[in-house]
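ok so for the tutorial part 2 we go from a plain amino acid sequence to predicted structure tokens. step 1 is just haveing the sequence, like this:
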Amino acid sequence: MRYSELTERQRKLIVLSHEIGFGQLEFITIKDGEAFFTEQSRKVSTIRLAGEEQRKQSYSRLDGDFILKQEQLSLLTMIWDKKDGIIRQIRIMNGLPIDMVMAEAITI
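step 2 — the prediction. this is what the tokens look like for a chain of 108 residues:
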């Protein structure tokens, strides 16, 4: 799948992951298989302090169309499949999602 084929909301997730580089996205609402950012949504960056080797940005540039990486496709597929819930956290490394914590309502 290509970046140009994504919805605006899906593109926002990819762009935010890229901007963060290392860190996490938090409290994203999932409704009908789409991600919605609310007032509670946060992006959290992990920043290396002096004395640590600088991290190299080895992830893709976002200045045009490109083929999505497997990690990006997995995230978007998981959101689509879940349909409704809250993503408490998506961990980002090298601009790519590596895992997520999701909360869903319990059906009684």
